[in-house]
User: Fold NADH-quinone oxidoreductase subunit J from Ectobacillus antri.
Amino acid sequence: MSGGFLAFLALSVIAIAGGVLMLHLTKVMHMMLALVFTFLSIAGLYFMLSAEFVGVVQILIYSGAVTIVMIFGIMLTKHDAESAGNGGWRSFLVLMGILAFGAVMYYAVNHVDFSGATEVPLHEENTKQMGVLLYTKYIIPFEITSVLLLVALVGSIILAKGKEEKEHE
Assistant:
C-alpha cells in the first residue's frame, strides 16, 4: 500500500469517527471536539487532492469560526439538558438512510464521466483558477450570495433587537 492510500484511509476513518462521535456523545464540548476532528480530517483530504486553498479555508472557517459560533450559540441559549430516548425505529431508519446514501455515492463515483476534463492540470495554480472563474463566469451568483448574507445579517440583528426589547418591557 502506498503512503497516499494510507493517509487517505486514516483521514477518512477520522472523519467518519468524528461524525459518529458527534452524534453519540452527550456533552456539548465533547461533541464540538469531535466535529473539529471531522473538519480537520476533511481539510487533510482537500490537501491530498491538491486543493490547498480549500483546505486552508476549511481549517480557518469551519474548524475555527463555525465551531466557535456554534459553541457560543449553544452556551447562550436556554435548552433542556434532558435528551430524548433513541427508539429502535429511529436507529433503524438512520441506518437505512446511511446505507442508501452510501449506495448512491458508490454508484455516482463509479459512473463519473471524465471525458470533458480540462486541459489545465488542477493542481497547478488552483487558487488562481478559482479566482478567475469566481470573478468572471460566476460573478452574478457570487454577488447574489453576498447580498443574501447581508440580508441574513440584518434580519438576525432585527430579530435579536426585537427579543431584547420584549424582555425589557
Q: What stands out?
A: Helices lie at 3-24, 28-48, 52-76, 88-110, 126-135, 139-168. DSSP finds six helices and no strands in the chain. The longest helix spans residues 139-168. The two ends are 68 Å apart (CA to CA).
